[in-house]
Amino acid sequence: FYNYLAQFEKENKVFDTTFRFLEGTVDKAKRTEQGEIISNAENVLGTVAKTAEELNDDYDLVGGVGTVLNGVGDLVEISVDKVVELDGEYRLTQRVGEV
């Protein structure tokens, strides 16, 4: 699926075209009365992005979240295995079906 999407994008340049269109629209909007508001919003978003990047560099937030998600995945896998084991031992699903 990913390869299909990558090939489609390579052939049709959907993202690139969309990005250029949006960039042009923002540039046009900057030349209007609201241009200062747009420029201020861009500056704020740039500052937020830079701060988030610095925090990630300092504290490895992305890696930490990945570690947590891996741990949760392991717990889910263990829990499912235990439920299957208990069901096999006590035939819970069969008993529920009989009720």
Can you describe this structure?
There is one protein chain. The protein has 99 residues and is mostly helical. 91% of the residues lie in helices and 0% in strands. The longest helix is centred in the C-terminal third of the chain and has 30 residues, at 61-90.
Kindly state the number of beta strands.
0
The outline comes out as elongated
Instruction: Name the structural class.
Output: mainly alpha
Mean pLDDT level: 83
Beta-strand fraction estimate: under 5%
Number of alpha- plus pi-helical segments: 5
Write the layout of secondary structure elements.
Layout (H helix, E strand, L loop, with lengths): L1 H11 L1 H17 L4 H25 L1 H30 L1 H7 L1
State the main characteristics:
mainly alpha; 99 residues
Quick structural overview:
It is built from five helices and no strands. It is mostly helical and 99 residues long.
